[in-house]
Specification:
heterodimer, A: about 110 residues, mainly alpha, 5 helices, about 75% helix, disordered C terminus, B: about 675 residues, alpha+beta, 4 domains, 4-stranded antiparallel sheet
Chain lengths: ~110, ~675
């Protein structure tokens, strides 16, 4: 009984490690997006710039930052967002639209 | 059943070896099938270790004293429900517990990493497998809980009686989970370094997530440990700067620094090297904790976890530290910050200062903890550093941290002009000055208490100011106050979850300050019928009764207690004697209110009917225990995922980028 149980519990991990290699499951599927690619990096920077804008809006709306600090922060983050867009190969019209939306959407009250 | 457990242990060791080798190979050769195979191999370890655990618990439940570990840690008299506690109450079993818990947590981490960081995950898997491999090697070759005696014993030695308590179900599991969970963000960080694909911040989200999980486990373990010491060990205190307590505090300090500074990397692409250093230090300190826990040479009250294998852990810590630093130096050029500090008055600067303080306290604690070893090595006399040193040195630094905790989160990122500083800090500083003056007028003369109350009020006012201002802003857009409050938190979970955590830290700081400076203690010798007074409490010793159990004899004192003129009922502190172990354990009786605890604990019952009791009044201790759930709630809010609207907002269009004309990420 012990021998049979031992064989069964040994077979389970053996099957688990052999299956992906024999069936080549991973290599048959398309290559996943590379987290270190320039595009992924740009997406992170885009998110960071938007987060910065939302944060500046939030701070301004609750009265935490002065007008001059708010304008400076907004400019810095808008420049960052624009820089990201400039690097991307997208049509100028779409870039302009995104920049405009970025400015509009940066408010933290997404439900309002 | 035990033999099946042994087979499962051997198989899990083989699988961990396989996952280590094949995981790294899969990463280096970009062999996706190899990486998948290593991953599935790793997933199989958890069920195997669960089988080994089940076989050990089965041995406890069936009183199979042919198993050495069962014979050493239980006996026939032990209630069956404590089979789970007995499982991790000794060294070998606790290692198995750590291995099974880590295999489960690491399995979940790898599952998520595989979809979020597909090219980093094989390396992170390799590092996690290596960590698990080490534990499994120690279990199999040095401390196997499933080893059998040559001859089956009729009864076991029994578990250390101090461990037979409800608290054992929660405190040690959390503490051990907390220490080993530091390996999760460590593996992700080292995995990202090893992957070395030119990216720099890809691991940050996952590092932060698992760093916070680890931080939550460590914090819960520490709080439960303090609660355990206070309510169960019966000495009237909750923290003694014992080496084992310190060994859990040190990684907590490093992890607290890490979960803050990783946010700077996420937002600004700064502190890349610093975060790597922090997570390496945190993991080294967690290993140091395990070294001290498992028979390190430093004297400790936690003697039940002692073994002779502490040096194995120390050696592995040294090797891990060395290899991590080699990898760090090798990848040094990829870790340069994207930008620098714009201003000294900014959130980044506050985080950096706070980080320095956390590390300073961690290293002071480390120095105080290992000083006995150093002093013995230098002049062969063991000098122990006690509570006064830690209180005097770490106390003021911790207060400074609470101050930074108050002002740091309200400073804007990048820079803050005087106008912004005035808006954010005017009210907290005015309230703080008022609190200082009111405390002084009300008769408080201890300057550390005055400073502490003033600092706590800065932090408290900043939190409430943020919540009120934010809610008011949403309310002005037409939302009801209640909806405005909850939607404010929901829309900015990391920020406001952090504030809730900060509230709990203020509660802790107030509890520690009040109970450290205003506790009153009295040792009294009483006969039945005697009454004594301490503060506003009058307590009458009515009688002592004796109760026999299979494993112990309890002497239970009965007290009637009044607070002023109000009768608050009977209290029953007791002393239990375990003849088999020749150990006596005392259990205090506590009457707890929101303002203070009245604490009674017996020291000695004399034959002539006299008894010695220690009586304490500890102010604001209940605030510390109430801080625990608040802290957990805050962390869960901060960790909760963004809602669909937040995730979908303004995503970049899906385009191919194969060149970097602006060299934007360099």
């Amino acid at each position: 009984m012990l021998v049979i149980s031992a064989i069964i519990i040994s077979l389970i991990p053996a099957v688990l490690v052999a299956y992906p290699i024999i069936r080549k499951i991973a290599s048959k599927s398309p290559f996943p997006e590379d987290e270190s690619s320039l595009k992924a990096d740009l997406e992170r920077r885009w998110e960071s710039a938007l987060e910065g804008l939302r944060h500046a809006e939030l701070e301004m709306s609750v009265g935490n930052v002065s007008e001059s600090d708010y304008l400076w922060l907004k400019q810095v983050h808008m420049t960052e967002a624009a820089l990201v867009l400039k690097t991307l190969e997208i049509p100028d019209k779409e870039k302009g639209c995104l920049i405009k939306q970025t400015s509009l959407d940066s408010g933290y009250e997404e439900d309002n | 059943m035990v033999e099946l457990g042994q087979i499962a242990l051997i198989l899990s060791f083989m699988m961990a070896t396989y996952s280590t080798v094949v995981g790294f190979a899969g990463g280096m050769l970009n062999g996706r099938d190899l990486a998948a195979s290593a991953r599935w191999g790793f997933y199989s370890i958890c069920p195997l270790l669960m089988l080994a655990t089940a076989s050990l618990i089965y041995a406890f439940v069936t009183n199979d004293f042919s198993v050495k570990y069962v014979a050493e840690n239980s006996n026939i008299a032990m209630p069956k429900i404590y089979a789970w506690v007995a499982f991790y109450s000794g060294n070998a079993g606790s290692l198995l517990y750590i291995a099974v818990a880590f295999s489960l947590m690491a399995g979940i981490t790898i599952r998520i990493l595989n979809s979020k960081l597909p090219y980093t995950s094989p390396y992170a898997l390799g590092v996690m497998s290596m960590v698990l491999l080490f534990f499994l090697a120690v279990i199999l070759f040095l401390a196997n809980p499933l080893d059998r005696h040559q001859i089956a014993l009729e009864d076991g030695q029994g578990m250390n009686p101090l461990l037979i308590h409800f608290g054992m179900f929660i405190h040690p599991p959390f503490q051990m989970l907390g220490l080993i969970s530091v390996a999760l963000p460590f593996s992700i960080a080292i995995g990202a370094l090893l992957a070395g694909r030119g990216g720099r911040d890809e691991w940050v989200d996952q590092g932060r997530l698992w760093g916070m999980v680890s931080w939550l486990l460590l914090t819960t373990g520490l709080l439960l440990g303090a609660w355990w010491a206070y309510t169960i060990l019966g000495w009237g205190g909750y923290w003694a700067w014992d080496p084992v307590e310190n060994s859990a505090l040190m990684p907590w300090l490093a992890m607290t620094a890490f979960v803050h500074s990783i946010m700077v990397q996420k937002r600004r692409g700064m502190f890349r090297m610093w975060n790597m250093v922090l997570i390496i230090v945190a993991f080294a300190m967690a290993q140091m904790g395990m070294f001290i826990n498992r028979g390190g040479p430093v004297p400790s009250v936690h003697s039940f976890a002692e073994s002779t294998m502490g040096w194995v852990f120390l050696a592995v810590m040294a090797v891990t530290l060395f290899i991590s630093l080699v990898i760090f130096i090798f990848r040094f050029d990829t870790l340069k910050s994207r930008s620098g500090l714009d201003s000294i008055i900014s959130r980044e600067s506050a985080f950096l200062a706070q980080n320095m303080l956390f590390l300073l306290i961690a290293f002071i604690t480390l120095w105080g903890t290992i000083f006995p070893i150093l002093s013995e090595a230098v002049d062969e006399t063991t000098m122990t550093i006690g509570q006064p040193f830690f209180n005097k040195v770490n106390g003021p630094l911790m207060l400074l941290l609470v101050f930074l905790m108050g002002i740091g989160p309200v400073l804007p990122w990048r820079k803050a002009g005087w106008g912004s500083i005035n808006r954010m800090l005017r009210l907290p500083l005015i309230v703080s000055c008022l609190v200082f003056l009111l405390s002084l007028i009300s008769g408080i003369r201890e300057y550390w208490v005055l400073i502490s109350f003033a600092i706590c009020s800065v932090s408290l006012v900043t939190v409430f100011q943020e919540l009120i201002r934010g809610s008011r802003s949403r309310h002005s857009h037409g939302e009801s106050w209640g909806r405005a409050f909850f939607s404010l938190i929901g829309a900015n979970r990391p920020r406001y979850g952090g504030y809730v955590v900060h509230l709990s830290i203020i509660m802790l700081a107030l509890g520690i300050t009040a109970s450290s400076f205003y506790d009153v203690q009295k040792d009294v010798v009483m006969r039945p019928g005697d009454s004594e007074v301490l503060g506003k409490y009058t307590f009458k010793y009515l009688e002592v009764s004796e109760k026999s159990y299979p494993d112990r004899v309890e002497e239970i004192a009965k007290f009637e207690v009044w607070s002023g003129n109000k009768n608050i009922g009977y209290m029953y502190p007791y002393r239990a004697f375990y003849p088999e172990f020749q150990i006596a354990a005392t259990k205090g009786a506590i009457h707890s209110t929101i303002l203070e605890d009245f604490y009674l604990v017996p020291s000695e019952f004399k034959e002539d009917g006299q008894a010695v009791f220690r009586v304490l009044v500890n102010p604001l201790v209940s605030w510390m225990w109430a801080a625990g759930p608040v802290l957990i709630l805050g962390t869960l809010i901060a960790l909760s995922p963004k809602n669909r609207t937040q995730r979908k907002r303004l995503q970049l269009p899906n385009v191919n980028v194969d060149q970097n004309p602006l060299r934007i990420s360099e």
